[in-house]
Amino acid sequence: MSISKKRAVIALLAISSLIFTAACGDGGAARPNTGNNQDGSVNAVSEAPAAYRNSCIGCHAADLRGNVGPNSNLQKVGSRLSRDEIADIIANGKPNTRMPAFSKQLSEEEIQELADWLAEMK
Ligand code: HEC
């Protein structure tokens, strides 16, 4: 192997190990609040589907209490609405409220998973 080829290989190895380190570097950093409530109430979000943490937590909060008014409280949503009603609201939003439709952002599986999970909140 010529010197310059050797150099190229070493440079390549150095670059790929840099990329590798960068990719692993933030392991855990992206984990948002997991919802350890000070008063010990519902600690739902540690078991929430990833989609909840990514798309819902800003408005509905880590403990499901809701950040945008009393109607955004989802702590007992499963006793008010059926699983299918919940899935419908997630997909299509609630007209004339701040609850957006997610059918374009989330897959059908993600919506069903969220609905299954929320329907247990009673
Ligand atoms: C921009 C803020 C916002 C985001 C983001 C948001 N919501 Fe909502 N959501 C609301 C508000 C406000 C309400 C209450 C609407 C009303 O006045 O009835 C609501 C209501 C709901 C309801 C119906 C509750 C009920 O009792 O009628 C469900 C279910 C729901 N949201 C689930 C979700 C899920 C799941 C996500 C994430 C995929 C999400 N929301 C994201 C603001 C938001």
UniProtKB/TrEMBL annotation:
Residues annotated as domain Cytochrome c: 43-122
Signal peptide: 1-22
Keyword Signal annotated: yes
Gene Ontology MF terms in the entry: electron transfer activity; heme binding; iron ion binding
Residues binding heme c, per UniProt: 56, 59-60, 99
Key words, A-Z: Electron transport, Heme, Iron, Metal-binding, Signal, Transport
Keyword Heme: yes
GO terms under cellular component: membrane
Modifications after synthesis and translation: Binds 1 heme c group covalently per subunit.
Record's protein name: Cytochrome c-551
